[in-house]
Amino acid sequence: MNKIIDTICEHARKAYVPEIRNIEELGTETRYFGAPWMELNRTWPQFDGEKLPFVLQIDLSTIPEIPGLPRKGLLSFFHDGDWDEDGKNAVIQLQDPTARGGIVYPLGVDMLPARVVSRWIEVADHPFGEDLASVTGLDEDKFEDLEAEDLISFTVGTAMTSNGEIPEADVIRQSIPAPGHNFISDKLGGWPTWAQGNETPSDRDGNPMVLVFQINAEEGPQAGNVDLVGECETHPCTGLGHVWFSPATGEFAHSWACS
Q1: How confident is the model at residue 169 (pLDDT cuts 50, 70, 90)?
Q2: Separation in Å, CA 159 to CA 69, 88, 155, 239, 242
Q3: Which pLDDT tens digit goes with each residue over 114-126?
Q4: Domain tally, the chain
């Protein structure tokens, strides 16, 4: 294998792609959409005087381990489906699922059918863009040579394997090794896919935050049996979203970029 690919593979991180199925709302399970579970008297987040759409909740006690991330609580993510320079159009809440609460159906908020994460598929995820340049010491324009030599693919939705370039979805479903590949699909942990350059946020003490979850609003979870968002006109419809956490301060944050 090419030495540069070997170097990239030395920096692989475990990531977990969600496989999803449609369900009726149940409660605190990890899922997209539907109506969220919320603690009693928890305020529904708003932006510009409007209730934010609910996108995702993650039961932190049931997911694969992400270094530094708490192992309890229900992470809830709300987003209005557009980009905002100040990031005020998205809210992350950490709920206590052992407290009194239940499913909340707000008035005036469009909701898509609930889609539960039935399992997490582990993949070896590799750095992308500026992160890739950092770990290899190469200029980003040199990566075109790797692609020209069929060593790596930067085409959205495909991955380079020993059998050539194939859809990323097949790599995930069939557990096919894809050395050096960065997964653009929804994923827990791993390396972020950048739409407009490295946007890793810092916590209040200046520490870089850790990626918790990536949402690809255009591609959806590649391992799922249904498209997550596709051509929908509600909830995040374009770009890449990232949910972040600081093990040092306990802060959560989000970033959203449109390509």
Answers
A1: confident
A2: 29, 35, 8, 20, 21
A3: 888 988 999 999 9
A4: 1
